[in-house]
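Why does residue order matter? Because the sequence determines the fold. Keep that principle in mind as you read this record.
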Amino acid sequence: MRKVDRFPVEGANALWQVYRTVSRMKAVRNFIAIQLARYCPSLPAKNWIYRHVLGMKVGKNTAFALMVMVDVFFPERIKVGDNSVIGYNTTILTHEYLINEYRLGDVVIGSDVMIGANTTILPGVTIGDGAVVAAGSVVHKDVQPGTFVGGNPLRELQR
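Structure:
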């Protein structure tokens, strides 16, 4: 079970009400910073943007590959430990805007974690230290430390 906070909405679906939950200026600033980071070939510069502009907690020697898309509205809810690799074109979400509610949840990625390319990480999950997530996976639940998981739905592939 993912750890998310649920906020009911009335009227139009929750995405139409997004600017009641996050300011337009924050969304624009974050969007520009994220686009710069997505294309930036320098890992130290990219991590500086994540830490100092977006408020993410990013550990020492963590590497975000090209085209990684972090949450535009709530990137400060993302924490990544030391020496982890986030693969090409991975998406890390901390929000979900649905029909009758929106949900927010922290994403915690441990140290020495390998996230394969084109993975989607949903809000409210923790990926333990030393875990490996296969490329193209959808992480919809917690991943125990040291496990190798993959697929959609996510399942353990080997220990």
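The first helix runs from residue 24 to 39.
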